[in-house]
Each structure stands twice: as C-alpha cells, then as structure tokens.
Amino acid sequence: MAVVAPEDDGRAPVAVREFDAHSERDRAAVERLERACEVGPSGGKLCLFTDLLGDPLCRVRHSPAYLMLVAEAAGGPLGGAEVVGVVRGCIKTVACGRGSNLFSKVAYLLGLRVSPGHRRRGIGRSLVERMEEWFRQMGAEYAYVATDRDNEPSVRLFTARCGYAKFRTPSVLVHPVFRHDLAPSRSRRIAVVELAPRDAERLYRERLGDVEFFPRDIDAVLSNALSLGTFLAVPDAAARQWRGVDAFLAAPPESWAVVSVWNCKDAFLLEVRGAPRLWRAAAHATRAADRALSPWLRVPSVPNLFEPFGMHFLYGLGSAGPAAPRMARALCRHAHNLARAAGACVVATEVGACDPLRAGVPHWPRLGAEDLWCIKRLADGYGDGALGDWTKAPPGASIFVDPREF
C-alpha cells in the first residue's frame, strides 16, 4: 500500500489501495466521488456522467488485464476512511505504426478523479505512480493517457510532474441522432455490406494491422457482446458482385471504407453540461419541429442531451482510395440509423489529427472535443531494437482508438 505524505497543515495522510469490486461500500464511495467531480469539458460539451450498470470497472473490464485503485483519507463520514481519489488502468499489445509489423505492450491510464476538497495534495500523482508500478510488474513498455487538450491541470500533472510527453492530438467527433433515418448514400452509388466477425478480423489485420495503436487482440474486440457489427462501404457495382472478403482482399475496388460499431449505451451514460439556456431552447424547438413535420421535412433536430443518454462509438475507421471520405460518410449515416433504432442519442468517433477521413465524418463541432494523448517510456531498455523510442516517433495519418478504452 502506497501512502501520500501529509501536508504541512496537518491534514491526515492518504492511502492508495486496490478497489474491491465485491464491496458495496467501495462501489458507493466511487459513485459519490465521480458525481462530485467534473468529468469532462463544460460549456455544452459531452461529459461522462455515470455507468448504467452500476459497475465502476465497466470501462476497463473488457481489456486483457486491468486494475482499479482508490485513495482513502482518514476523517470521513462517521470517523471512517473516505475515498478521495480513483484511477483505472489496463494493458494490451498494440501496433506502433510506421508501416511495419512492430508491436509493443502498452498500458493505458483512464478515469483519474480526485475529490475537489482534496486536490493539490499530490493524490493524483500518487495514484498514477502506484498504477505505473503495476504496469511495470505486468511488463508494459509504455504508458499513455488521453485528456482534454484544454484541461490545463491534467496536462500539467502528466507532463510536468509524471514525466509524460505530448504525443498525439486526435479529435472526438460527435453527431446527434435525429428522429428520422438518413439515406446512407445520397448518390445511391455506394452500398454498405455487413461483415461477419471473422471476415472483419481478416480485413482489419491485412489492411489496418500496421495503424498506430491497432490492438493485437482485435478478434476479442470484434467478438465482444458490445460490438454491434462491422460494415464495409463499397461502390454499388462491387456490392452487387460481392463474393466474400477473400475476393475483396484479392482485388479491392479503387475506393472503400470500413467501420465497426460499439454499444456504449449498455455500459455508461453521458450528459451535456454547461449549455446556455438559448441553446437548450433552440434544441427543444428543433425537436418540436421534427415531431410536427417529420417525415416530410426531416428537420435535423438535437435530441434531449441535457439528461443522461446513451451513445454508439465508431471504431476501426479505415479506408483506401480517392472516394474514401464519401465512403466514410455513407458508413456514418448507416451507423446513425442503427443508433436511432437502438435508442442511442449520439454517434461518436475519434480520428487522428491528419486522418483524411476526418472530412467525411459528419459531426457537430460544438459537441466534440480535442484530445491530447501523452505517453511515457516505463523502463530503460524497453522498446529498443527495431522500434527505438516510440515516444519520439512522428505521427502517422491514422490512429486506432480501442472502444474498450473510450
């Protein structure tokens, strides 16, 4: 058990220990803590609100290896210990990019929270350092973390105090789900084909297996109960002559795109915080117009995002060819319709800063966020040889965002 030293003002020390998933006390304490913390950007942006199933491990338990730590301070309710901090971590093996088959065992930090009344006491740093000890014990070569680019305290904690380097700057793109379906392709020259998990795995390994952060256990991701399917956009003529994924890989069309859908709504809920009253009123007005006029005018309406709601996440977005952005747009519109049928209120994805598919992803900038991924080399000697030091590698065009960690 790690202990945070007491402050000069005489406040009690804080102990870091493993979260007990079987303890109702621990579960309730973590829920109270996370409700007390602002867990996302404000001002009308999406924020993680709570987990739907009452499972604090919901965002890591689908990973191959995971751990959750809590920090406790004395002097809580009824004189007992009070949970004042929490962090989660998971480990997997991913591709390092650079257009070659190089993989590294990496760890991911997420869900770091510290109670507002216990900040600036080194608790966040102690949680991170204790988690890094476990990462090293498990043989992880690198650790990385994603934070909002504008969250200065978080960025400062990781880069100035914990030794992480700024690494990648992907964007979270979010689109609301309307009350009406969208035509997958306005030109009717693009068709969407659903792939079986094994066919999807083969396509991903052969065509996207060298994309940065591509998970070696992609088969486990695709076969997870939360993965709702993989969809391939191809020219309509190619769809009419579809002979399976083997034929596609042997002679793909000039342009194509692929994406998989992850059901976040059965794991956690979100809400929009800090939205101005004017925006709330405008959103209500568009919903009223949609109810009155749909399906004739099909007004693009904002669903009720001001109460907890569910989301679908698009992952594995990849493509080839000059018409790839149009193909990606068709896939996103198809995913929108799946989300509407399932009762999700938004569809989101995350793309690299230089990803050419970004232009084809429909999104509302007001709902999205600009992320900053920071990375740290955990031990000398790791990552030598063909890889070198990954923390110094220039970014590629694309990045694979694992839905188990979103």
TrEMBL record:
Gene3D superfamilies recorded: 3.40.630.30
Source domain of life: Eukaryota
The chain's coiled-coil residues are none
- Give GO terms: molecular function aspect only: acyltransferase activity, transferring groups other than amino-acyl groups
Checking PROSITE patterns in the record gives: GNAT (PS51186)
Annotated N-acetyltransferase domain residues: 14-183
Name of the molecule in the record? N-acetyltransferase domain-containing protein
Q: Which organism is it from?
A: Panicum hallii
